[in-house]
Amino acid sequence: MDHKSSVRERVFGQLRKVAYADSRFHFDFGEFIADFQGSEQALERLVNHRFYQQAQVVFITPDNCLEMLRYRALQDGKRILMTTYSIKRGFWLLDPDTIAPERWLYAATLDGMERHGRPMTLAQIRDELPGVDYMVTGTGAINEDGVRFGKGHGFFDAEWGMLYRIGKITTETPAAAVVHDCQVLAETLYPEVFDTVVDAIFTPTRTIEVADPHKPTCGIVWDLLDPTMLATIPPLRELQRMEPQLPPL
């Protein structure tokens, strides 16, 4: 953890030079994933990549750098599954077929998604949605092998674990990270058993594809889960209640 903290400190110092401040969190990168100079070019690389082109249902995290991706996905007729407020407000579905086109841009924002999206329980996701085709996230730092260092809370790994456990994603489901070039590290990092290593990294200047990325198959490791996350995140408590009825891993 000390090594991770030192990596974040080093990267966040560089990121401050190119990031856009958040009106709520200023430059506190421990509280949000920032948008940054050149994110438009990074997103253009993503939407022209085969993973996005082949996807119909896309999970997109509520990160600042992905707001315009959510708008683009609605324009492209894709359904978006996302979470908000550190997963504490649960999963939401944005469906372009049920949102007026003139509201798509607002629906792509964190405030607008709750006005125009549909809240979904894990049971509803399991029973009503087809598989999620693509998982997209921002992150604090990442190396060229796709190992992420986020804000340190593990939200994306929890989202992967929940969706994997209810059968909506598999080890073949691609995952991607959108970051500034200064957030990409050359050093070797080692994922934990529950860490989701991405298949592709999109920066303003590069598309990095990762060979044989590690995808966790453990669901939620309850013994290692921060008790605060279980206490404050309703979907985790729902999954815990569902566990006895789910097939064994």
Automatic annotation (TrEMBL):
InterPro entries in the cross-refs: FTHF_cligase, FTHF_cligase-like_sf, NagB/RpiA_transferase-like
Signal sequence annotation: none
Originating species: Lampropedia cohaerens
Protein name according to UniProt: 5-formyltetrahydrofolate cyclo-ligase
GO cellular component, one term: cytoplasm
The keyword Ligase is annotated on this UniProt entry: yes
PANTHER family in the cross-refs: 5-FORMYLTETRAHYDROFOLATE CYCLO-LIGASE-RELATED, METHENYLTETRAHYDROFOLATE SYNTHASE DOMAIN-CONTAINING PROTEIN
Pfam families, alphabetized: 5-FTHF_cyc-lig
SUPFAM superfamilies associated with the record: NagB/RpiA/CoA transferase-like (SSF100950)
GO molecular function: ligase activity
Keywords linked to the UniProt accession: Ligase
